[in-house]
Design brief:
There is one protein chain. The longest helix has 15 residues. The protein has one domain: Alpha-Beta Barrel (TIM Barrel). The protein contains 15 helices and 8 strands. By secondary structure, the chain is of the alpha/beta class. The protein has an 8-stranded parallel barrel, surrounded by 7 helices.
Length: 324
């Protein structure tokens, strides 16, 4: 089946969602250089940083400096995470294109992660929306645990969509459905996305998958099958995964783009440039990254035939080498 006419939009989140959980502080100049490199990769959006308290997330304590000094490329949306009014004011002073607000659709996860009830979170984010809607800055809301809560299990589709609708009623322009701890599976994703597209009409819908249980790529295809065309991903597969220690984080950008290109989709992303940027990550964070495409290369990155095979070797030695 050809998908040649299907345009998808990839949104890079490594410099926020990836770096926020890293033990090693990535130098401000290195962050800026990486964002500037991402500019040339063809991403629809880049989530640059987070305007949370430096005490809460010291890894992103240089948010203002990064936002003020990055190069802006026309056509790329520069988005940032904002937790409260103070964060929104800081972000607005840096001329961001979009603010991303976050809460969980699971009560237990919201209390654990944000130390608030869902209603308290909603009230706080409503205040943020009031501040931002007076400007030209776009507002996106990310709904965590939309495909499962590590404490409560499944979250009803109706529950997810009711929270999405409450934010839609406040005038936000986009909603992201997040598989926060990698609990989603393809048929579930397809059903949720079909209902979301039908219910949250007119909103920009993004899917945010984690690869905790190795299903992020399969879930992406299920979402595309339902009509979704916009996805978050993280260079190198970087990113934390709450409640699943040692697990991989976000769906890996270069793995995602590699798969989608093979399937005939147009992502707008230059895979070679993305892989070059991803190759910088181990040096920045001080450890290996989960990206399999970075390790193995693209499907048709071919290898020379070994000289021993090309020149011919005694039959017996060949059998031994083959383990016969």
């Amino acid at each position: 089946m050809s998908h040649a006419n299907k345009r998808l939009y990839i949104q890079e989140v490594a410099t926020r969602d990836g770096f926020q959980n890293e033990a090693r502080f990535v130098d401000t100049d290195a962050k800026i250089a990486l964002v500037n490199k991402l500019n040339d990769c063809g991403f629809a959006k880049i989530e640059v940083t987070s305007f949370t308290s430096p005490k809460a997330i010291p890894a992103l304590r240089d948010a203002e400096a990064v936002m003020h000094r990055i190069t802006r490329k026309p056509g790329v949306v520069y988005t940032v995470l904002v937790p409260n009014v103070r964060g929104a004011e800081r972000a607005l002073s840096c001329d961001v294109d979009e603010v991303n607000l976050v809460m969980s659709v699971s009560e237990s996860h919201n209390r654990t992660n944000l130390r608030m009830t869902r209603e308290q979170s909603f009230a706080q984010l409503r205040d943020v929306i009031k501040v931002v809607e007076e400007t030209s800055v776009a507002i996106n809301v990310s709904l965590s645990t939309a495909m499962g809560c590590p404490m409560e299990g499944d979250v009803a589709v109706s529950e997810v969509l009711s929270w999405g609708q409450r934010f839609a009623d406040l005038g936000v322009h986009g909603v992201t459905l997040c598989d926060t701890t990698g609990m989603a599976f393809p048929s579930q994703v397809n059903e949720l996305c079909r209902h979301a597209i039908a219910t949250l009409r007119g909103l920009e819908l993004t899917l945010h998958f984690h690869n905790t249980r190795g299903m992020a790529l399969a879930n992406t295809l299920a979402a595309i099958g339902a009509g979704v065309d916009r996805f978050d991903s993280s260079l190198g597969g970087l990113g934390g995964c709450p409640y699943a220690p040692g697990a991989t984080g976000n769906v890996c950008t270069e793995e995602l783009v590699h798969m989608l290109e093979l399937e005939g989709y147009e992502t707008g992303v230059n895979l070679s440039a993305a892989m070059e940027a991803a190759a910088l990550l181990p040096g920045l964070v001080g450890h290996d990254v989960p990206s399999q495409v970075l390790k193995a290369g693209r499907r048709l990155d071919l290898h020379k035939m070994p000289a021993s095979a090309a020149n011919g070797i005694p039959e017996q030695r060949a059998l031994v080498q083959q383990g016969v």
